[in-house]
Amino acid sequence: MSKYSAKLTWVGYVFNLVADNNQVIATSHGYTSKGACLKGIESVQTNASLAPVEDQTVKNYEIETNPKFEVFTDHEEKYSFRFRAQNGQIVIAGQAYKSKAACMNGIESVRNNAETTDIVEEDIFAEKVIYGNVNTLDKDNTKAEAVAIVDGYIVYIGSADGLKDYIGKETEVLKCENGFVLPGLAAVDKPVDAAALNQCLKENKLSPITLSEKADLVILDKDITACAPEDIAEIKVLKTMVGGNWVNA
């Protein structure tokens, strides 16, 4: 039986449409909330089975109205497809195919399986969350209250209240309200939509990117940005993370 598989990744909440043989037919971009991700699934369920196909690989192609599938060639001149919702947003995209016929079969598979109501939530929570006095590396909003880490990547830096949706039974929760959390340069303040970025690159015949900087951070017992220079040497390191893993306690 086909299904939708939703999970929390370092690019945000993502869902796959999975066929009976357990092969992924199409993948969504990263959503910033579980609710938005489920809305994306609903859009595919409601609209994909009857959506027309706009073949952008032919000259003077006919422009269809949304919702619709679009067929295009990527940076390697392979065929791919994406599905746009009524509002024009790209909801899901397929893999790269060597032939247009295979790509069209991929679209037909989406159409045939889109209406399934089986939704499986896999690993929908963060692996680690940290509460503390967080330096955001953002000059406009320099301080935050919490950090969430998924697949070794920092996916959230913000308020403590905003972290609630990331916490599950298996999530490691570290509360260090008196500690100063200093993330490394790879930190972001919201999920990185790598899928949408790579989709844009493919549309423009450019090579996709690989984002590989996992979380580095240190937790200090004092705010290093507020200390007098002569007191910095007295600051103690409470914990250190390298590549998404704790390296000392």
Structural account:
- There is one protein chain.
- The protein has helices at residues 34-47, 100-113, 194-203; strands at residues 3-9, 12-18, 24-28, 53-55, 68-73, 79-84, 90-93, 119-122, 128-135, 143-150, 153-158, 172-183, 217-220, 237-242, 245-248.
- A hairpin with a 5-residue loop joins strand 5 (68-73) and strand 6.
- The chain contains three helices and 15 strands.
- The strands form two sheets. An eight-stranded mixed β-sheet has the order 4-5-6-7-3-2-1-8.
- It is 15% helix and 36% strand.
- The chain has two domains: 3-122, PH-domain like (Roll), CATH 2.30.29; 128-248, Roll (Urease, subunit C, domain 1), CATH 2.30.40.
- The chain is α+β, with helices and mostly antiparallel strands.
Number of helices, counting only DSSP H or I runs of 4 residues or more = 3
What do we call the CATH homologous superfamily of the largest domain?
Answer: Urease, subunit C, domain 1
Through-space gap between termini: 46 Å
Which CATH architecture of the largest domain? Roll
Strand and helix order: EEEHEEEEHEEEEEHEEE
The largest sheet, given as strand count, sense and whether it forms a barrel, is:
8 strands, mixed
Name of the top-level CATH class of the largest domain: Mainly Beta
CATH fold naming of the largest domain: Urease, subunit C, domain 1
Q: What gyration radius follows from the Cα positions, in whole Å?
A: 21 Å
> Which strand-content bin applies to the residues?
35-45%
State the domain count.
Answer: 2
Trace the largest sheet across and list its strands.
4-5-6-7-3-2-1-8
Instruction: Extract low-pLDDT stretches.
Output: 186-194, 207-212
